[in-house]
Amino acid sequence: MDPYKVLGVTPQTSDDDVKRAYRDLARKYHPDNYINNPLSDLAEQRMKEINEAYDMIMNERAGRTNGSQQQAGGAYGSQQQRQYAGANAGMYSQVRQAINQGNLGLAESLLQRTTARDAEWFFLMGTVYYRKGWYDEAGRAYTQACQMDPSNAEYRGALNSLNMSGGYGGYRPMNEANMCDCCMQMMCLNCCCQSCCGGGC
């Protein structure tokens, strides 16, 4: 896979333009935009390729090798294994596997089922957010993980990579809008119409 072709850029493209191309493609192909759509599987695969291509380019430009286990935004290579103990051990292993396979829906669902929010939970949720393009949420989750376990190099590396990539200010897909917000906007518009037009639209 040529990561530059996947993002539609060249090795001469500036970092800012690479990030812009990535975000444009992420908005277009994000699986959340294809819920209950027959193209959802294709969109998910395409989004996985886009994420991998972006990571490869940013890693290369940061002086890291493409095969390194620690990738931008807390991603990790399939060779990396983490030994867990405790009640959430099996679940965390499943979450990491789901993220490596690009199945963000499953990873997020597994994480949301538990009420135990330890440092690993915040790190994994931050990685899900990052993969979705929700960089602000990813940054907050990574920060929380680092505060809860400041000696963990993986957590710190994920936060540093996110900060280096300038990833803050991500988007949320349109279907993530709160229905209450939509209702409030409609009520405000109705009030404006009544006051301006003297009796409603």
How would you describe this structure to a colleague?
The structure is a single chain. The chain is globular. Helix content is 61%, strand content 0%. The protein contains nine helices and no strands. It has 201 residues and is mainly α. The protein has helices spanning 3-7, 15-29, 40-61, 89-100, 104-112, 119-132, 135-148, 153-165, 179-197. The chain has one domain (3-175): Tetratricopeptide repeat domain (Serine Threonine Protein Phosphatase 5, Tetratricopeptide repeat), CATH 1.25.40. The N and C termini lie far apart (54 Å).
Q: Can you summarize this structure?
A:
With 201 residues, this protein is mostly helical. It has helices at 3-7, 15-29, 40-61, 89-100, 104-112, 119-132, 135-148, 153-165, 179-197.
What key attributes describe this structure?
single chain; 201 residues; mainly alpha; 61% helix; globular
Helical fraction: 55-70%
Instruction: Kindly report the CATH topology.
Output: Serine Threonine Protein Phosphatase 5, Tetratricopeptide repeat
Overall number of strands: 0
Described by strand count, sense and barrel closure, the largest sheet is: none
- Assembly type of the shown chains? single chain
